[in-house]
Specification:
The protein is α/β, with parallel strands linked by helices. The chain has 2 domains: 158 residues, Cytidine Deaminase, domain 2 (3-Layer(aba) Sandwich), CATH 3.40.140.10; 218 residues, Dihydrofolate Reductase, subunit A. The protein has 13 helices and 16 strands. The strands form 3 sheets. A 9-stranded mixed β-sheet has the order 11-10-9-8-12-6-13-16-15. The longest helix has 19 residues. It is globular.
């Protein structure tokens, strides 16, 4: 009888693998919550938090609020009673902050609620945190685990991590092409290559990014709004940034007319005529002067730093072949979202990317397919850049 009791006792003790599997399960709940705040947190990171009771029951879930506040941890704790929080485990996609900004440190809030354990996916590289939150929690006697589902969490946090570490936003290049890689017929006239379902998907992507980058050629050819027009998401449109060297954007354009729906910034060169500046600023447009590169074009790396300085973590590029090729040449594309119709429109049409003068292929492709699917008659692919492998 005693041997059976001892055997059951040993069996009831969870293994390291079982604990890790449980931690992954709840961390994925937190990651799912963090996706609800993508593109809506201003300069703050889109963080998710799930709180699980000492008995293993999910108590609450939270994510970073619109504009960056409240933080995910405080939102999640506010949804649960103080009695149940004591002894609970908090699963957070990013290290809890340890500094006081417009709100108090989340690490202190977790300590005050007597949370027993905190599981963290990613350490916060912000110099005001960067391990300080973890240290504060451990000093208070809280058990801390770091790195659970880190790769999955980083996909959502990619923009924030890129801006903090590299002083530029995470860049997604979106294109919609024919089966043979063309974005328009030879006449350049605007036509829909993909169906309604795919166009709705584009608007969803816009709602999940902080900013959108394009160039004056696309503005003059298509007169786009670059807003999000899905029902219920019209307030989630990205800030618009246009590379417009000589400020040719018409005051009557759809971009300018919709400036009340989403901010509009035009990047231009030094020495643009004052009357053009005045007309656009009077219309409520923000103007930003950039230097030119050796080819006489607006300097793209400087433009990226300027976008990051506004607090944009993640921008999506919707542009023609010229800007797209330049961004690839500068190694500024981190993710590709490629939408493909079943049309074949021939070599006299307009390609998605211009010549890049490549003389050889790398040993491994620069991008790897992460996701793919079908919407209506169209296909889509998401490819992520391979860092440090080429």
């Amino acid at each position: 009888m005693r041997r059976l009791w001892i055997k059951n006792l040993v069996t009831d003790i969870p293994t390291v693998q079982q604990i890790y599997n449980t931690d992954c399960r709840w961390m994925r709940v937190a990651i799912a919550a963090s996706r609800r705040s993508e593109g809506r947190t201003a300069e703050n990171p889109p963080v998710g938090c799930a709180i699980v009771s000492a008995a293993g029951q999910l108590l609450s879930v939270g994510h970073t609020g619109r504009g960056g506040r409240p933080h995910a941890e405080t939102e999640a704790m506010a949804k649960s009673s103080t009695e149940l929080l004591a002894g609970a485990t908090a699963y957070v996609t990013l290290e809890p902050c340890a500094h006081k900004g417009q709100t108090g440190p989340c690490a202190d809030a977790l300590i005050a609620q007597k949370i027993a354990r905190v599981v963290i996916a990613v350490v916060d590289p912000d110099k005001r945190v960067n391990g300080a939150g973890i240290k504060r929690l451990r000093t208070a006697g809280i058990a801390v685990e770091v790195g659970v589902c880190a790769a999955e969490a980083k996909r959502v946090l990619a923009g924030f991590l890129m801006r903090v570490k590299m002083s530029r936003p995470f860049v997604t290049w979106k294109t919609a092409t024919s089966l043979d890689g063309m974005i328009a017929l030879a006449d350049g006239q605007k036509r829909w290559l993909t169906g309604l379902e795919m166009r709705r998907y584009v608007h969803l992507l816009r709602s999940r990014t902080d900013g959108l980058l394009s160039a004056i050629g696309t503005v003059l050819a298509d007169d786009p709004e670059f807003t999000c027009r899905l029902p219920g998401l019209s307030d989630d449109g990205p800030a618009r940034f246009i590379l417009d060297t000589n400020l040719r954007t018409p005051v009557s354009s759809a971009l300018v007319k919709t400036r009340d729906k989403a901010p509009l910034t035009l990047f231009h060169r030094e020495g643009v005529p004052c009357d053009r500046k005045t007309a656009l600023t009077d219309a409520g447009v923000t103007l930003a002067e950039l230097p030119l590169d050796a080819d006489g074009r607006l300097d793209l790396p400087v433009a990226m730093k300027a976008v990051a300085a506004t607090g944009c973590n993640h921008i999506m590029v919707e542009a023609g072949a010229s800007l797209s090729s330049s961004l690839f040449s500068h190694n500024l594309i981190d993710r590709i979202v490629w939408m493909q119709s079943s049309h074949l429109i021939g070599g006299d049409a307009i390609p998605a990317i211009h010549s890049m003068s490549m003389l050889a292929l790398p040993d491994r492709a620069h991008y790897m397919v992460q996701e793919e699917g079908r919407l209506g008659d169209d296909r889509w692919f998401v490819l992520n850049r391979r860092y440090g492998e080429n």
